[in-house]
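Service request form, structural biology core

Requester: graduate student, group of Dr. S.
Request type: structure prediction, single chain
Budget code: on file
Notes: please return the result as structure tokens.

Sequence provided:
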Amino acid sequence: MKPSKYNYIIPLDDRTAFFNGISEVFFIVPNNRVQIYQEILENPNLYVEDFQVFISAMKNGGFILEQNEDEHDHLMKKYHSIRRSSELFIMVLPTYECNLRCWYCIQKHEGLGITTEVFENLKQFADKHLDQTQIKTCTLSWFGGEPIMQYNEVLEYTRFVQKLCNERGIIMRTSITTNATLLSKERIDALTSIGEVSFQISIDGPKKMHDKVKRLNNESAYDKVLSLTNYMAKKIHVTLRFNYTQKTLQPHTILSELAERIEPESRKNINFLIYKVWQEKKENIDQTKVTELFNGAAKLGFTPRLAETNLCYADYENFFCVFPNGRMAKCDNHGIHTAPGQLMPNGKINWPKGLGYDIPPIELPNNECTTCKYLPCCWGPCPSKRETMLAQDSYIHCFMPDRESEMQNNIRHNILNRIMLEKQEKSLSDLPDEAQNIHS
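Core staff response, request fulfilled:
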């Protein structure tokens, strides 16, 4: 027997987690027992007779392999499964315009909305791609800009794709990323009547700070957005994304204001995503406040989530991003005028030859990712970063300034999220009785 190459030891304050990157199985032990468990995992042959049940559990969890077992096969199997080959992903940016000007937004907003011609081509695209026999699920994502500025098109196209899916027996899900200031109860009712629809809505701190970032003329954007969030979460799933900085990370104020505005009935349908604004330096953040906010949100009945890195959705096998001018890409980080593909009237995509960034690192030769111990937890840089790397260096390299710290933190978030969601059916937190003998 031999240990997996993808075992990680992750500190969790007063306890420590052992996590396997391929299986994503984990178990948690007291800090004073870490060295004992580490010794057994690294040298399983020495302990197999005394701890047979524990060794068996570790083999089932992927921590220990047979000597002749090829772990690369397991890695590739996981990779192909998470690329979701049976799912069609259509991300549509119906406009590059926005009614707000959030300081952290990376987009250069243009007064450009989807044209009638592009809209009709988009219908042909859905009809054509949903006819593929391997497609069992369709995810339609509305992004922007602010997609609700093109509300009529959002409503019409969602209905159109839902009808196609119904005719073909395909499961459809729709997600809408919006600042919610252009929504109303009537619009929410119309959109949610179509099928399985969810929303992602952002807040930017306590009310006073949020309303300085998202300004409305005659009312509080904070009050309006949370009132609508409370309304929609009574019947559908909502992700409330808190974009925090050092200044806006005020757990007590945020939690008390959310408790005042979101009823307990609605909180159970709200994922509270705690997400650092990318411009804020990690070292400026007081992590105890993040923990306080995470735990406090859970006590209120929300489902808190910490940001994780994994395979970028742009690397899903059938992911396509459509810009309002009909340009297409495998990544929404492209500029609206530089996206390499073009949506054609027959629903096909005209791609230029020789694209390399659309090939995931695991399939590319001569790149750093394939030898990285964190590959199954990261899968390398996203397509946009890969494109830049290939153009400049003809080589894929790590994009993280501090890989060890960032990946350890990412795995920690994965574990905490799963514990909070009570998705521990694959975990080994409750070790077999025999394993407890290790403590002595």
